[in-house]
Amino acid sequence: MSLVGPLLLATFLFCVGIYGVIARRNAVLVLMSVELMLNAVNINLVAFQNLLFPAEAAVSGHLFALFIIAVAAAEVGVGLAIVLNLFRTRATVNVDDVDLMRW
Amino acid sequence: MLIDWVAIAPEIALTITALIVLGADLSLRGEAKQLVNPLAVVGTLVAIGFTLYLWGDERSTFAGQFVINDYAVLFKLLFLGSLLAILGISWRFFAEGRYFQGEYYFLLLTSFIGMLLLPSARDLILLFIALETVSIPAFVMAGLRKRDLYSSEAAMKFFLIGVLSVALMLFGMSMVYGFTGTTELAGIAEAVGEGESVPLLLASVMLIFVGFGFKISAVPFHFWAPDTYAGSPMPVAAMLAVASKAAGFAGLIAVAFIAFEPLADVWAPVLGVLAIVTMTVGNLFALQQRDVIRLLAYSSVAQAGYILVPFGLAQSGHLAVNDAAIQAVLFYLVAYAVMNIGAFGVAIAVNRRTGMRSISDYAGLSQRSPLLALAFTTFLISLGGAPPTVGLWAKYWILRAVAVDITPFGIALAVFLIINSVIAFFYYLRVIRTMWMDDAPAGLPALQPGFNLSVVVVVLMFGTVLLGVLPGLAGNFADVVTLAGG
Amino acid sequence: MDPQTAGWALVVALFLPLAGAGLLALIPARLDQQIRRAAVVITGVSFALVAAITAAFDFGDAGTLQFVTDVSWISAIDANFHVAIDGISLPLFFLTYLLTFLCAIYTLSNLPAPGKPKGFLGLMLLLQTGMAGTFVAFDLILFFIFWELVLVPMFFMIGMWGGPRREYASVKFFLYTLFASIFMLVAFLAIYFQAGAETWSIPELSAAAGVGGTTFQTWAFLGIFFGFAVKVPMWPFHTWLPDAHTEAPTVGSVLLAGVLLKMGTYGFIRIALPILPEGAMRFAPMIGVLAVIGIIYGSLCCLAQTDVKRLIAFSSVGHMGFVMLGIAAMNEAGIQAALFGNIAHGVITGMLFFLAGSMHERYHTREIGVIGGGMLVKMPKYGVLLTYVAVASLGLPGLAGFWGEFAAMWAAISPGGDLGDAYGGLYLGLVIFAAIGTVLTAGYFLWLLQRVNLGQPPARWADEPLDDVLRIEWVSWVPLLLLILALGVFPRLVFGVQDAAVTNLMSFVTG
Amino acid sequence: MDWMLDYAWLVPALPLLSAALIAAFGKLMPGKGSELGVLSLAVAFLLSVGIAWETFTAPAPMEPVEHAFEWSPLGGGFVIELGMLVDGLTAMMFLLVTLVSLMVHIYSREYMQGEPRFTFFFAMLSLFTFSMLLLVIANNTLQAIIGWELVGLCSFLLIGFYWEKKPNQDAANKAFLVTKFGDVGLIVGVIVLSVPMFGASGSPFNILELNQAAADGAIGQGTIVLGMLMIFLACVSKSGQMPLHVWLPDAMAGPTPVSALIHAATMVTAGIFLLARLYPVMAQSLLVMSVVAVVGVITLFFAGLVALVQDDLKKVLAYSTVSQLGYMMAALGVGGYTAGIFHLFTHGFFKALLFLGAGSLIHAVHSNNMSDMGAMRKAMPHTFWTFIVGSIALAGFPLTAGFFSKDEVLVAGQYWPYATGGLVFWVGLAAAFVTAFYMARVCFLVFWGESRSHHPPHESGRQMVAPLVVLAILSIASGYIGSPVWDDDNNFGTWTATPVLAEADYPFVADDELGTGLQGGGEVLAGGAQGQAGSASVLAVEGEEGEGLGAGSILHGPPSWHLDVLLMALAVFLAAVALAWRIYGRGKPEEDPTLNMGPLTTVLVNKYGFDDFGYRYIVVPVRDHAARWASWSSNVVLDGIVAGAGKLTRDAAMTTYRVLDQKVIDGGVNGAAFSAAWWSERLKRVQSGDVQRYAAVLVAGVIVLVVVFAAAR
Amino acid sequence: MTGHDLAFLVVALVTGGGALLTVTSKNLVHAALFLAVTLSGIAGVFLVLAADFVALVQLVVYVGAVAVLFLFGLMLTRAPIGREALDNQNRGLGIAVSGGLFVVLSVLVIGAFGGTTAAEVGGPRVGDIGMVIFNTWVLPFEVLSMLLLAALIGAILLARRETGDSGEEQAPTRIDMGTAPSMEAERMARLEGGDDQAELTAGGDPGPAAGRGEGRA
Fold first, then answer.
1. Which chain B residues are closer than 8 Å to A95 by Cβ?
2. Residues spanned by the domain of D692
3. Which of residues 164-183 of E touch B (CB under 8 A)?
4. Which of B111, C354, C411, D616 has its CA 20 to 30 A from that of C436?
5. Which CATH architecture group holds E1-84?
6. Model ipTM?
7. Which residues does chain E have within 8 Å of residue D696's beta carbon, measured at their own beta carbons?
């Protein structure tokens, strides 16, 4: 199986995620985009592990991917909490309104 | 496989402390909750004890993922010392502000567990986990003043930029794994050294640096720093500015000088240019600031630029230069911790009751509290790098690294460092001037910083001067750094 | 005290003011007069100790280091705490303690707003340790520390007790010198690492008969040159000086002119020349040209001034030009001249700043036009002193100012090394232009005297009761006034002390 | 009495001591310190007499007595010496300085009575005397510089003695600055001349060694020309030679005794003295000699003309001084070493006398202007007689001191084999006429005619008159020291000569194809008057003719009676006085001169038409036009140049400071600082507060870095 | 092109399309649903790559938990469900930056791995993974547990309503930002402009004067 396919998919997802982070107003949507980026990395790791290094003893690729999934979940949790708190204080979840501090 | 418990004793001590703090917070009520701070202090002291026990030792455990050597121990001591100082300046701040004391201390300790791991980590996965352990509690702590618009905004920005950077870093790490088939730093170094350097590999290295660049707030990954420092509770800002930054550098050293040492000739110039841009931009922005915390934030950006300079000097296979560079980074971090935590401490003391934080609010501080004014002056002068303070030696070590093997690029870095040091003094002096040369507005009471805060500030001030006179006290770095590669 | 073994005396003298500053901090701020008296006692005791050191100094062996203390200080970087004194250091060291002592006495009665003698005198004592240390440090790192140490106290002195534009001036002073000094540090580091010297010891580096190759020396010298030239200050790095001097309080100006500027020239002589002789040889003609430009230029700027202190400040640029001309000559006579010029300028210009400061306290203005003349009528003693010191400053033989200037010009006619062959004509031109500078110097001082001293006082001062010289002022000035005469009549006081040390030093430069 | 020579240092030391004592205790003493000055000068004078006696009786040429000690090391093994050099020149100067100073001290006790700064004045007089003697006794050029500058300082302080008035301040400043300008030359000259002496001994400034080296031909021509011309520049300014004489007339703003001592008898002759001191060096170069001679000639003539039209009595004397200094300079320029210093010597006495007399007059009428005097001979007989003696001495009336010395100068010009010799002779003669004329004019206007004084004039007291009398006697007697009454081996020339001067060879004739021999060269170059100038009889025949100019022509041999010169001088004198009498005899210049023909006028000028012609076509043009022009050129052009130079300097200063210093250099630095602020102001907009924009910039940064990085290899 | 490739292509198209729709959808809930589709697609990718355990975890954690969490988040923040301007003015910038990065990375990836193919697709089995987790990776694993605990506590801390030890609901406070004029000016402008956000802010804002007053007292 060709390796470049999963890699390009990962790259695509990653860049779509970046687009979302930059262009979406709603903070929850931004968080979703972040998730896309993290998942893209997992595709890379799994593809490398299973296509290039299937016999690696430490199974680093899979483990890395699993750790990332866990951490990503934690990040989502914390991120949503932040967004929630933001909403409580400011009644908005639009990221581009959050610009009290500048310069 | 046997686990070397001694090697991870400091981390375990801190973990247990964190859990005790959490439990205590749940069981204590009202004023008694303030006990968590001394508890944390005790735990930190225990951890320091363990760490000191490890001094001079060389250990490796978890299949080589975790090593103990003097380099790591020194970094751990730096973190634990910072932790002590931050606990000191947190005491009144959190007690009086009716913030979530127990949770705060728990999160703080957790964050420091991540930091303690960083200098010992010799594996990309562990590095990543440790880095996240530093970051995620920090995201929360930045937003701890929940009802404060600025605090939640700070947390928001910090979080978003943080995860974005981590994602970029992870992308890079995944690619590196694809090239090398391993996540061990030593294995990566081996593979990288043997194989030819494909553009994608180099790009991946760069992406990994981005993650650490975020932590150390290097330009252009620095945007969060001023906003977050200004919005966060001040002890958290101090933690972010000092300990978190040092952690970033610990990781960066591991990645740069161990894993990608064979590629040093490629990344060194890039990091060098990054250093120049960082210090220049940081200083230029700082010139504009009227808010002391933002000023310190931009100043810390600039300081990150200085600390990046030695990375710009690295050369693959040139042990003398690389050693000198690591020495410079280490020493600068120690010095930076001492002076910057001190500066934040003073800012907290001034801000604590009155909410004052603009430079003009510091007018006549010398009359309101000579001690604070003197301390702040010392810290600022040290940040600028003038004797008799430790800041001079910090710059000295960088210039020394330049001088070990003089190259045109090294000279350029030195010149930029010098010019920027002078620019930096423009704004440091502005604060100093305001404190000493302007009159305080009528009717302001004398400032009475709390006992803990005073102790921390005074200790750090004396530390700044003492290390300025006898820099050798900060460790004999010549013996330490050669172990960084091990 | 045996000069060979009594290293402790020098160390004690060096850190006594620092300890004194700590002591002052313990006195409650409201005991205004007691603080001032304590400072006099501290500086007086330090001065007495230095006088004892001077007395014990073995003048017959002035070329070798005496009162040596050499202990390891920062082992990580091989830096030693190496202080000692020789014939070159001794006069400057002595002058530092004398001037500080006199400044402390002067402060008994004169302290500009906002008062606060505790802070002021504490800074002065801190400054004293820094200044004195520079002249006795024989380790590059130690030298650099002392060198930088003076910045902060002087910054505060100017910034807190200075004139209306004090903030600008203090920042400018600080940044200029800081900027330059870091280049100096880089050069030091380069000497240590790049040239394979692996030592910071100034005597060892000097004895190494030049470190590195010619190219290296050229670059290293450039760095050091930059650091020292700003401090001297040489044209065109001088613009911090008029501002700093004009705004500084009297004591600050005195110490600035009397000691701080000397650190630059001392650095050239002690460090740049012996350690980097080839670099120095290459730069010497350029230094000479800049020095002479400074002489002419400083004098011209003086002619354009309307502010007494600013005028004196610019005169420093010119006078230090003569000192640098001596150094540019690169021979023993030139070094002698430069060192003599240092001392003479310190004493004379220090005294001039005392006078200008007291003048300002009486007239509350430094504008020559506002003072408008007639000081000899209103304050005859004062006018006589001003005349005396101004005449000394314009280089009248028999007073201190002459020897440095003449000897510098004389030395420059036959520069050392191969310079005479390569640049003989240039140096002749330098001598001629420097001599023309003396005329301009005379011009602005006479003009100053005419406009300030002579004539009838204008109406606004006619009925104003202006104190003539106060008793405290007499006490703090008489030593300087006598020194001006003594140095003019007995140049041996300085030339003789330095001679062996300069010979020793120049043996490293010209072989 | 040999010890006297060894203790010659006491001569300058005494006035120094008295200066210090007067400054310290003067106000406490009954005479307010003046008696200390008089006492010390009296002792110093006696010592000087002893020294002169020793010197003049020593076998000629006397080996100079030199004592010196190391004053200070100067680096490189060189030392500065403080020393004394006693030879005939020193002894002569000692006599002149101490005596005139003594007289002025005594005179001032009365003249300055009641002045507010009386004690200061005496301290300065003593200090000045010390400085002058320090210069005179100097055994090295560096020490000479010190004395030289110190006399300048004293001169400055004394000219500005009445500092309450602005013109006096200006005069003092002008004097100091113009002479200081000359000092540039002195310093550079001394430095240049020290270079060839580096190998000789420890003290590269030693005068004897320098002279010896020059005489031995050990110093290159270039060095000599540069060094001596530089030193000559200093002499020009100090000794009031054109065009740097402009300060001297203004210097009359000082009290009259100061003018007598400093600006007539001693300080202004320092330039002459210095050149004489370094004569063996100077005489090595024909170029230098010629320059000196030409400057001297120009000065002596034009300054004399200017003196014609002054109303201020002191100004007349000041210009006269300039003119006489020109004589001395001219003499030195044409080989007249002896003549030059002899004229210096005699001139010191009679010019001091004239000034003190003028002071006496001014004291009496409270005005400097001759138009406020008139008929003073009745009211002030002593002053009158002594002034007349001084005047005729100055005018060169036969058998007065001025006659002998001026003749020497003219003879020196006569014998000099180059063009400058003739110039000196003829112009000198013409200027003698001018001198006699203006002195006669002064005498007639002041002492004859009717009194125009606003105060009833009275004779001065004893302390003022006594010095006048002493000086009057010396104005006659001092001439005989250098007169031909002495024999060939024992005369003023041998007393003041030094061995090096007497034995040296002067190379320029031999080396110079223009004159291969004295006679030939002389005839070709100098023409008529000195056709036989080269005759060996007037020379001390030390040098071989034809191979070079011998020491003889420099030393100029023993004085002898030169009847032709004498007659010419006498004729000139009489003509001038007669003409003056014709015009000013009534002491009323505004009246028609034809109406008051005095006896002297009729003797010499017996035709009205000639008078008229002479008056209309010679006197009027010369007095009213040429002299006016000269005066104008002196006051407006030359002074204007000095003033213009001053203004130019001030303008340059302003420009330097305002434009270069404040704008360019300081502005550049500040500009750099401001540009940092400017950039920072622009840059800060990036920190917009919009976190998503931050993210975009971050990623953009990543792209850039990745591209750069990936392309790196 | 092997069968794996073909299968991958299909799954990849679904995944990529879902991702694109996630970030472009104008409806919040739709976006969340598209995210779930994408995450499931990724699980599919893992399956195609024969990483069944990872795929399982992906489904459980992401599709099962995270996507739901997002939906809760949307509801808790009372985000307007329905059409709204979900993109900010940075859209062009976003396209440029992400597009640029995609081009660069793609070129590099193709350059580096363009020709790499694996003959067979296979990887470690679940058992292997279990072994290494508790052998090789035990340290990161344990640290991760601490991290998750911290994240949990942190998330609760931030998300729960009551604040402070006193248990009282505090009014939104803000620190006095000093006299940084840019911010102040901005705030004033908003107040004057009647912006509802600013009013809300100003309502609970003790203001600089009040802040100072405390200090004096």
1. 156, 160
2. 610-712
3. 164-166, 170-181
4. C354
5. Up-down Bundle (1.20)
6. 0.80
7. 90, 93-94, 97
